[in-house]
Amino acid sequence: MSKKEAGFVTMGKVREKSLAMTAEEAKFEGIYPAVITPFDQEGEVVFEYLKDVLHFQLEKGVHGFFVCGTTGEGPLMSIEQRKAVAETVIEEVGSKVPVIVHVGTTNTRETIELAKHASKVGATAISVVSPYYFKPDLDELIDHYKLVSKEVTIPVFAYNIPGLTGFNITPAIFNQLCSIQNMIGIKDSSGNLSQTSAMIETAPKPVVVINGWDSLFFAALMIGAKAQVSGPANVAPEPYVELYELYKKGRYQEALDAQTRINAIIRTLTGPSMASYKKALELRGVKAGLPMRPLRPLKEKEILGLRKRLEALELFW
Prior knowledge:
With 317 residues, the protein is of the alpha/beta class. It contains twelve helices and eight strands.
């Protein structure tokens, strides 16, 4: 079977911009699964599986997609793989819901390359993690975001995940980033609700703050966050969508109950997280491929344990 027949996309050829949802049409609200990227044993993207995952999520009512982030294993992929994944997602679902493409890398040059590509192929917005490995000082960080943002006209979200980057974008730093015209918000995965609240309360202009810490989803909404980017929502989007809809209706106790169900799902997904998400999806009948090395798939004993824990929830397995 050829790669084309197996659902692979030829990389390196930028498609014409699709009829994707524009920033003006997008509200940047609700549930944005941090879409997993299915790989084969050679580390190639299996695009047919990726499309199946996207349509599974859409059928469950998600409000948008976050592409090539941490859960999507973006930092492990080549630049050409990331471009091909962004193109595929935008072509497949971009006319239906907003698509935020994460373009952050360790350096400014490649981040700009990915940002310009995402804009060209129709991304609704981009997200840019703070550079990692070589941690920038404040001046370097601000310059990095300015240099990337000036190359595109679409909205830009900063992406704060200090547990992986070693750099925390504080509310004071975010305030400085807000001076960039098309910087419209931040995805905060710090897990620090006080910090998230301060970002919302002290920003010098209206901003969209997206929560990235799943167990704080309901609490983040209550303090003014607009959306949730979630890895576990790949596995079980239903309680996330339910929570958000209940919150919008003011049915807060029921929304809190949905948060409790979400937390129980999170606790079942122990072990290597990307491998657990992909296997849990497969246990729901959605092929999700393998993680990219050096991340490993689950061992048989781990799969049996995961199946037992998921079945005990009496939800979708």
